[in-house]
Amino acid sequence: GKSGYDHYMLKEIHEQPRALRQCLRGRVDELSASVDIGDLGDLSPTGIQFVACGTSYHAAFYAAQLFQSAGIPAQAFLASEYATSPPPIGDALVVGVTQSGETADTLSALREARHRGARTLAVTNVVGSTAARECDHALYIRAGPEIGVAASKTFSSQLGALNLLALATTRSDEARDIIAALRDLPGQVQELIDDSDAKEVAEHYQDAKSYFFIGRGHMHPVALEGALKMKEITYKHAEGFAAGELKHGTLALVTEDTPVFATTVGDGEQATKTVGNVKEVEARDAPVVAVTDGQSDIERYADHVLTIPETHPRAAAVLANVQLQLAAYHTANFLGRSIDKPRNLAKSVTVE
Ligand code: F6R
């Protein structure tokens, strides 16, 4: 059952600390700063291609960034486009990111890759799913069953598991810091949920017709995911962008009626540039909701702040996304939407 929550989605948002602990359990050794995901650790890919749909595509996009930063050529593809314009595979590992393991578009991209001689790996929540059975390897995200149609805890656990994959198969000078950040993540997610102001933000902007989400680097996939969640469960227009891209056209739509959720962490160059983009939307009188660890001066230009604890930027992506999940959830709840079963959507999409 829903264990006292109004919706499965809210229950599943609250289950994230536990789901993340489960994902990491027995796989991370802090003393030696090493990760053990069994045979998968021996894969040492020279190139990696991710295929996925929807929320899982956003996780795949984030994962491609992790491998790129380790010097491994990596790309994320929308599974439904993969076979239509097939990229050169070479000896790349092809990774299907799929919560259900049953998404037709993703299965068919993985079959295409196998047909062309690639080794394949399924990153999935469901043991014995078609993706897990058909791929050469499987990495389980261990989030537990997700009932709400909109993916929430499984996205966070995908990011956790994909970090483990990157740590186990590549070298990183930051491994120790990343592992420490992953260890702290479940507790930080709990802290964030307990203190979140997302409900007030949702109440304030529930009548907006359109929402925008911006972020750079790891916060770009988070912006895309924030917008998708908002669309799915509120039935309102929402779009996510790389922070620098909004001004290349969509700024024309930004008015005092379009709240902009802007995510920054740290006080480095990326944060400074995003703050610059925030000034542009603020100058058009758009309400700004800053999702931030408080290190940059974004709060000066923001009407509301959703705080995330300080951590490594990789873990910050998970935290920022939880704030956006809560903002979407509460907005949909104020609007009286069918949150666990949004119109027109199914939990697993078995047609192409
Ligand atoms: C969004 C959502 C969908 C799925 C997509 C892929 O909340 O749930 O976008 O992420 O249909 O599903 P899986 O991960 O099962 O392949």
Furnish the topology, listing elements before pairings:
Elements: H1 8-14, H2 16-24, E1 28-29, E2 34-35, E3 48-52, H3 54-69, E4 74-78, H4 79-82, E5 93-98, H5 104-115, E6 119-124, H6 130-134, E7 137-140, H7 153-169, H8 175-195, H9 198-205, E8 210-215, H10 219-234, E9 237-242, E10 260-264, H11 269-283, E11 288-292, E12 304-307, H12 313-334
Parallel strand pairs: 3-4, 3-5, 5-6, 6-7, 8-9, 8-10, 10-11, 11-12
Antiparallel strand pairs: 1-2
Bound molecules: fructose -6-phosphate.
Which percent range fits the helix content?
A: 40-55%
Unreliable residue runs? none
Summarize the helix and strand pattern as letters.
HHEEEHEHEHEHEHHHEHEEHEEH
Global Rg: 19 Å
Bound molecules: fructose -6-phosphate
The count of helical stretches stands at 12
| Main sheet makeup | 5 strands, parallel
The geometry reads as globular
Give the rounded overall mean pLDDT: 96
Strand percent estimate: 15-25%
Which structural class fits the helix and strand makeup? alpha/beta
Spatial ordering of strands, largest sheet: 4-3-5-6-7
The overall strand count is 12
- Tell me the distance between the termini: 32 Å
Subunit structure: Homodimer.
Subcellular location: Cytoplasm
GO molecular function: carbohydrate derivative binding; glutamine-fructose-6-phosphate transaminase (isomerizing) activity
Main location: cytoplasm
